[in-house]
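Why run this: before we spend reagent on co-expression, it is cheaper to look at a predicted model of the complex and decide which construct boundaries make sense. The entries below are exactly what would go into the expression plan.
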Amino acid sequence: MTQKASAPTDSGPNRLFLLAIGALVVVGLAVVAIVAGSRGDDGDVAAGSGDAGSGGDVVLDGQETADIAVAGDALPPLPEGVRIADATNDPAYGLAAPTLSGTGFDGGEVVIEDDGRPKAIYFLAHWCPHCQAEVPTIQELIDEGKLPADLDVYAVSTAVDRGRGNYPPSSWLQDEGFTPTVIRDDDAVSALAAYGASSFPFAVYVNQDNQVVARTAGSMEKGQLEQLWQATATAP
Amino acid sequence: MDVDTVTLFFALLAGLAAATAILILVSAVTNDRFGVIGTLRPVSVEFAAAVAVTATFGSLYLSEIVGYEPCRLCWVQRAFMYPAAGLLVTALMVGRRQGRSGSSPARTLVGAAGLLAVVGLPIAAFHRYEQAAGGIGEFCDQDNPCSLRWVEEFGVVTIPVMAGAGFAAIIALTAVSLTGRTPIDDTQQLKPKASTEQYS
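The model came back. Tokens follow.
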């Protein structure tokens, strides 16, 4: 063993040859990644054109935050440590949800108001890992047809921070193929504060009379989301 | 080059690192029947340093350029990978200055890097377990859970898998380097023997 080990010593040519082989292998892997990556891009483009048929790509106006008007009394904050708040433990239960008037990422007007329809409103921060995990779950439920016909789903893009990960939120939500209507919060997170958010993702469920029936903090399992949607759609 | 291409490249490198570690392990078990260990030994420190430096800059790329926020377990793994990179590069420089990569100070540095990797590997394995188990886990906060898979290539290669493959390769390559005898070691061992004979 020792003899075999000492045979190929630090001799220059042998060493350089081995280093060159190593470098070649790494370069080969880089080429494989680039080729495979470019093929993946083609696939994404195809998927994107498929999406375009079912709704079209949103033309973004380049702004990640925008002015938003909040009308009505702000909801009290969700008690600390509470993940799912309802009639039993939410001081906001039965209170009127504030009206939000602003714009989406395409610059189009978005209003979340008392329109006689139950709603699920999700406050999402682009940098929050749980939000990143929950967005596809919400979309999955929608794609599977689990969204009750009587329920509208909205999202509020909030707490935007250029210095944090997964920026910008407009690209993130577009890449996820997120179909619910999105409204931009302002730099002062006025909408977030008005709904008494405690952590991300934060969700507020509102009945047909615009009263808060539940609020949740943190990500929910798919089954929990479905239950909340069903309960909100049929809430008195 | 987009992020997907870079992460795919990292995953392929991780596969290469894991394959190297397995090849060395199998060779060690079979008493190096095919001469793999003997062939790799002259460049083992260089390869180990390349693995550690690539892992270091790869993790910095993912966090500082792409924006994937490192979780607590990621930081613990960094605490073992980054110094290992520094030690191995220093070992190469020390070895070169002294004319041979197998000099005693260089071997100490290589050994220290190997020990860091020995600690880092089970942490990476635990992180992968946390990812598989899901949930927030006891080690991480709710806003930045260890269970989140920022990268997932081939359905299994996540960031801790890449780190684990890197640690495994560093362990194997430093072991290959340390188990070998270099000309300078032979010379150093001969000297005291000669002087003992002189005094006897």
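Chain A has a mean pLDDT of 82. The first helix of chain A runs from residue 2 to 6. Bring this page to Monday's planning discussion.
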